[in-house]
UniProtKB/TrEMBL annotation:
Gene3D superfamilies: Homeodomain-like (1.10.10.60). Residues 2-79 form the Homeodomain phBC6A51-type domain. Pfam families: HTH_Tnp_1_2. This is Helix-turn-helix domain-containing protein. InterPro entries: Homeodomain-like_sf, Homeodomain_phBC6A51-type.
């Protein structure tokens, strides 16, 4: 369980308004103390948990803002980016085509090697005749 100053530190960190130095001054500890707290697993877990809660509180508003951009933006590029972002976050990300490209590249290389081999064989056959 975090102590009072550690909790104050977390709240100030989550506000995003203060530097570590400013936080240290506000709660009456050194910057090194905060650095040491940040290295402790319990402090990190509490910070991450609080950060997730904060993000979840704003998620609906963020989605609404994105949806409003999609509906009302003057720029088609802005609308497109809003649509892509909404779809990505909903799990409709574009398929990863790297493996298809790699397979095509490998097939092309194999066919090129095969054809080069055939050309050599044909040339040797013509030379021997």
């Amino acid at each position: 369980m975090l102590r009072g100053k550690q909790k104050q530190c977390l709240e100030l960190m989550l506000s995003g308004e203060f530097t570590q130095k400013q936080i240290a001054e506000k709660i009456g500890v050194t910057e090194q103390t905060i650095t040491n707290w940040k290295k402790k697993e319990e402090f990190c877990k509490e910070y991450n948990s609080a950060l997730k809660r904060k993000i979840n509180l704003h998620a609906a508003a963020a989605f609404k803002a994105e949806a409003d951009l999609l509906k009302r933006a003057d720029s088609d590029a802005v609308k497109l980016n809003a649509a892509k972002d909404i779809l990505d976050r909903a799990g409709f990300k574009p398929r990863d085509e790297v493996s298809l490209i790699q397979s095509a590249d490998e097939s092309l290389k194999e066919m090129t090697e095969y054809l080069n081999g055939r050309i050599k064989n044909d040339n040797q056959t013509k030379t021997n005749t």
